[in-house]
């Protein structure tokens, strides 16, 4: 097959909008609650859009999670775990979600899940994909990027030989994460809310047009592909000894060249980036990743081609 | 105290005792990282805190909250230094912060007694765009007011507005109230759980400047009288809510990040999820602060309204 072919793909009828996968990322929490009261803005002919609060207990406590990160437990081990004895709340919840919107990998699963997140990093409105081989989501990203132009809308590809995420949205046939920042945890900003809302609108518009038979010609999009996680410098007791350098802070998606400042120790010493090639950092200084031993992740820019697309 | 003179004459300084023991608290709230990181660093290497005329003791206010990177475990430590909590016999069944407040009171107080530390700094962050805000109980805290004036004049950090944090008629129950004098730093914007290099550097410079002030004061420098601008909290404004208590609107984009800027009657303050503007319905101009502070959602505070005033302060000098 080559990229000039037009791919015939099944209609996307069952769509879910997840908010509160992380309970303190408030844009999605409040949008979903709002849509549950008044869903007019997410209704489109030819599809069912279901707003859903993924981790209600974490939302209630306004924390990321109660027992463990809901966005990392959608693997076969946790989804198949027997629910006896002490099972973390999020594992139980993952199984509920899997039965409501999955089962993951099965034909009955939802067609599309848009999972709404916030970050403390200056990532703007970012779309997150799990695979480079899904022409539907690539075309959707291309459509959203076009619609938002001249505002940028980076696409982050979580495809890596060893880093596996097992995200909540992965129960759907086409999973897409929407990550908007910067916004502190537990805070709701009107500008970030507006940005997220717009992305969702364009995403649903795309689905509606696709279902209605519009053909999307082959396209190429630029994506940032995950390379590696970079941890903070730490002492023997595992305490962080340096912070993100001011030159790197807020510079998500900007090139980081060999020798560029990366961290600043509390003694005032600059620690440079010592890689051999230019990378594009993202999730720079994300609050939730301190415990994951992660100061930022590096990415490389790549171009991906999507085949033409039309509903079958 | 040699305050027998209390001269009405402007040129005469008020004489205050020198400061011998100074404490610096970080992590009163465990997810406000500038103070947490600085105090942990100073516990390893206190050299930058050292001055010749007094002793400085850094400490972590709420170590358990710091460990879990949360604001508090059982209740807000920074509202726990009231007699009702300090003077009851602590038992293991008490909330952690009550026990911890009593410990802090034992080490650095007792609050209100002659054995208490002379000064306490308390290092905070806010998600609001408050710059490098200096929090003082009230304008009657003469020494703290002089310190603020000195910081505004000598510190390289710009925009250090003074905010009086003690609601009128209420007693001070903040951590710093254990010592005889206090100053809290409230730096933002910084998300909870995040340490930004820029905020860290600002907090550090202000601390260095404040300690320099104490050193000069202890050495007998006369600090002349001055007038200074400061903001006083007069009321809190909650988010609009649905009958079930859920927030029904967000801070209006025109108000977001506009801490310390005038808010006039009729200015938009909230925006509903349907895009409708909600206007300020007061009949006076206020200066809002703590706009969209994460920790205040549960305190039912979307922002605090302040009044700006000018406050005259007499000269001070160390008494002999
Ligand atoms: Zn998230």
Automatic annotation (TrEMBL), chain A:
<feature type="binding site">
    <location>
        <position position="25"/>
    </location>
    <ligand>
        <name>Zn(2+)</name>
    </ligand>
</feature>
<feature type="binding site">
    <location>
        <position position="179"/>
    </location>
    <ligand>
        <name>N-acetyl-L-aspartate</name>
    </ligand>
</feature>
<dbReference type="InterPro" id="IPR055438">
    <property type="entry name" value="AstE_AspA_cat"/>
</dbReference>
<keyword id="KW-0479">Metal-binding</keyword>
<dbReference type="Pfam" id="PF04952">
    <property type="entry name" value="AstE_AspA_hybrid"/>
</dbReference>
<feature type="domain" description="Succinylglutamate desuccinylase/Aspartoacylase catalytic">
    <location>
        <begin position="12"/>
        <end position="206"/>
    </location>
</feature>
<dbReference type="InterPro" id="IPR016708">
    <property type="entry name" value="Aspartoacylase"/>
</dbReference>
<dbReference type="Pfam" id="PF24827">
    <property type="entry name" value="AstE_AspA_cat"/>
</dbReference>
<feature type="binding site">
    <location>
        <position position="22"/>
    </location>
    <ligand>
        <name>Zn(2+)</name>
    </ligand>
</feature>
<keyword id="KW-0963">Cytoplasm</keyword>
<comment type="similarity">
    <text>Belongs to the AspA/AstE family. Aspartoacylase subfamily.</text>
</comment>
<feature type="binding site">
    <location>
        <position position="117"/>
    </location>
    <ligand>
        <name>Zn(2+)</name>
    </ligand>
</feature>
<dbReference type="InterPro" id="IPR007036">
    <property type="entry name" value="Aste_AspA_hybrid_dom"/>
</dbReference>
<dbReference type="GO" id="GO:0005634">
    <property type="term" value="C:nucleus"/>
</dbReference>
<dbReference type="GO" id="GO:0005829">
    <property type="term" value="C:cytosol"/>
</dbReference>
<dbReference type="GO" id="GO:0016788">
    <property type="term" value="F:hydrolase activity, acting on ester bonds"/>
</dbReference>
<keyword id="KW-0539">Nucleus</keyword>
<keyword id="KW-0378">Hydrolase</keyword>
<dbReference type="GO" id="GO:0019807">
    <property type="term" value="F:aspartoacylase activity"/>
</dbReference>
<dbReference type="InterPro" id="IPR050178">
    <property type="entry name" value="AspA/AstE_fam"/>
</dbReference>
<feature type="binding site">
    <location>
        <position position="64"/>
    </location>
    <ligand>
        <name>N-acetyl-L-aspartate</name>
    </ligand>
</feature>
<feature type="domain" description="AstE/AspA barrel-sandwich hybrid">
    <location>
        <begin position="220"/>
        <end position="299"/>
    </location>
</feature>
From TrEMBL, chain B:
<comment type="similarity">
    <text>Belongs to the AspA/AstE family. Aspartoacylase subfamily.</text>
</comment>
<dbReference type="GO" id="GO:0016324">
    <property type="term" value="C:apical plasma membrane"/>
</dbReference>
<dbReference type="InterPro" id="IPR007036">
    <property type="entry name" value="Aste_AspA_hybrid_dom"/>
</dbReference>
<dbReference type="InterPro" id="IPR016708">
    <property type="entry name" value="Aspartoacylase"/>
</dbReference>
<dbReference type="Pfam" id="PF04952">
    <property type="entry name" value="AstE_AspA_hybrid"/>
</dbReference>
<dbReference type="InterPro" id="IPR050178">
    <property type="entry name" value="AspA/AstE_fam"/>
</dbReference>
<feature type="domain" description="AstE/AspA barrel-sandwich hybrid">
    <location>
        <begin position="227"/>
        <end position="308"/>
    </location>
</feature>
<keyword id="KW-0963">Cytoplasm</keyword>
<dbReference type="GO" id="GO:0004046">
    <property type="term" value="F:aminoacylase activity"/>
</dbReference>
<keyword id="KW-0472">Membrane</keyword>
<protein>
    <recommendedName>
        <fullName>N-acyl-aromatic-L-amino acid amidohydrolase</fullName>
        <ecNumber>3.5.1.114</ecNumber>
    </recommendedName>
</protein>
<feature type="binding site">
    <location>
        <position position="29"/>
    </location>
    <ligand>
        <name>Zn(2+)</name>
    </ligand>
</feature>
<dbReference type="GO" id="GO:0016788">
    <property type="term" value="F:hydrolase activity, acting on ester bonds"/>
</dbReference>
<dbReference type="InterPro" id="IPR055438">
    <property type="entry name" value="AstE_AspA_cat"/>
</dbReference>
<dbReference type="Pfam" id="PF24827">
    <property type="entry name" value="AstE_AspA_cat"/>
</dbReference>
<feature type="binding site">
    <location>
        <position position="124"/>
    </location>
    <ligand>
        <name>Zn(2+)</name>
    </ligand>
</feature>
<keyword id="KW-0862">Zinc</keyword>
<keyword id="KW-0378">Hydrolase</keyword>
<feature type="domain" description="Succinylglutamate desuccinylase/Aspartoacylase catalytic">
    <location>
        <begin position="19"/>
        <end position="214"/>
    </location>
</feature>
<dbReference type="GO" id="GO:0005829">
    <property type="term" value="C:cytosol"/>
</dbReference>
<feature type="active site" description="Proton donor/acceptor">
    <location>
        <position position="186"/>
    </location>
</feature>
<dbReference type="GO" id="GO:0046872">
    <property type="term" value="F:metal ion binding"/>
</dbReference>
């Amino acid at each position: 097959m080559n990229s000039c072919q037009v791919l015939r793909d099944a209609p996307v009828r069952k769509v879910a909008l997840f908010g509160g996968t992380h309970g303190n990322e408030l844009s999605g929490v409040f949008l979903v609650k709002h849509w549950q009261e008044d869903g007019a803005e997410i209704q489109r002919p030819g599809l069912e859009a279901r707003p859903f609060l993924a981790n209600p207990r974490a939302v209630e406590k306004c924390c990321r999670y109660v027992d463990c990160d809901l966005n990392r437990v959608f693997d076969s081990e946790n989804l198949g775990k027997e629910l006896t004895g002490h099972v973390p709340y999020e594992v139980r919840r993952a199984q509920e979600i899997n039965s409501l919107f999955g089962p993951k990998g099965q034909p009955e699963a939802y067609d599309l899940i848009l999972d709404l997140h916030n970050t403390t990093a200056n990532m703007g409105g970012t779309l997150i994909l799990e695979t480079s081989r899904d022409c539907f989501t690539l075309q959707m990203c291309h459509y959203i990027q076009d619609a938002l132009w001249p505002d940028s809308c980076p696409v982050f590809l979580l495809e890596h030989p060893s880093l596996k995420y097992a995200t909540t949205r992965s129960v759907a046939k086409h999973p897409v994460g929407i990550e908007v920042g910067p916004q502190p945890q537990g805070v709701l900003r009107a500008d970030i809310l507006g940005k997220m809302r717009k992305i969702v609108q364009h995403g649903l518009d795309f689905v509606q047009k696709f279902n209605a038979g519009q053909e999307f010609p082959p396209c190429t999009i630029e994506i940032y592909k995950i390379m590696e996680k970079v941890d903070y410098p730490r002492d023997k007791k595992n305490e962080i000894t340096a912070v993100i350098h001011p030159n790197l802070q807020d510079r998500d998606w900007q090139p980081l060249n060999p020798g560029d400042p990366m961290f600043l120790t509390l003694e005032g010493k600059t620690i440079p980036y010592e890689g051999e090639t230019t990378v594009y950092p993202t999730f720079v200084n994300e609050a939730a990743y301190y415990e994951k031993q992660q100061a930022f992740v590096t990415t490389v820019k790549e171009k991906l081609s999507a085949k033409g697309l039309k509903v079958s | 105290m040699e305050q027998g003179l209390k001269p009405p004459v402007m040129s005469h300084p008020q004489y205050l005792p020198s400061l011998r023991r100074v404490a610096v608290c970080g992590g009163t709230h465990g997810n406000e990282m500038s103070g947490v990181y600085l105090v942990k660093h100073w516990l390893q290497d206190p050299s930058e805190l050292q001055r010749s005329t007094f002793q400085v003791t850094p400490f972590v206010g709420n170590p358990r909250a710091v460990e879990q990177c949360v604001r508090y475990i059982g209740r807000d430590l920074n509202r726990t230094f009231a007699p009702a909590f300090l003077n009851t016999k602590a038992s293991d069944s008490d909330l952690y912060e009550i026990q911890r407040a009593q410990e802090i009171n034992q080490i650095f107080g007792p609050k209100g007694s002659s054995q208490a530390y002379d000064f306490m700094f308390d290092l905070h962050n806010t998600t609001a765009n408050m710059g490098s805000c200096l929090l003082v109980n009230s304008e009657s805290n003469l020494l703290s007011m002089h310190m603020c004036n000195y910081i505004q004049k000598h510190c390289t950090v710009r925009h250090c507005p003074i905010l009086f944090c003690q609601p009128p008629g209420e007693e001070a129950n903040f951590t710093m109230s254990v010592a005889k004098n206090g100053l809290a730093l409230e730096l933002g914007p910084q998300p909870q759980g995040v340490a930004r290099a820029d905020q860290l550097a600002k907090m550090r410079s202000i601390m260095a400047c404040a300690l320099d002030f104490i050193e000069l004061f202890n050495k007998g420098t006369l600090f002349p009288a001055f007038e200074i601008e400061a903001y006083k909290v007069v009321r809190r404004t909650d988010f609009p809510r649905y009958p079930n208590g859920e927030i029904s609107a967000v801070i209006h984009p025109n108000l977001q990040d506009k801490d310390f800027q005038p808010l006039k009657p009729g200015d938009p303050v909230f925006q509903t999820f349907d895009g409708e503007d909600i206007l300020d319905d007061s009949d006076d101009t206020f200066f809002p602060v703590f706009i969209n502070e994460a920790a205040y959602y549960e305190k039912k505070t979307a922002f605090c309204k302040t009044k700006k005033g000018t406050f005259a302060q007499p000269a001070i000098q160390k008494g002999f």
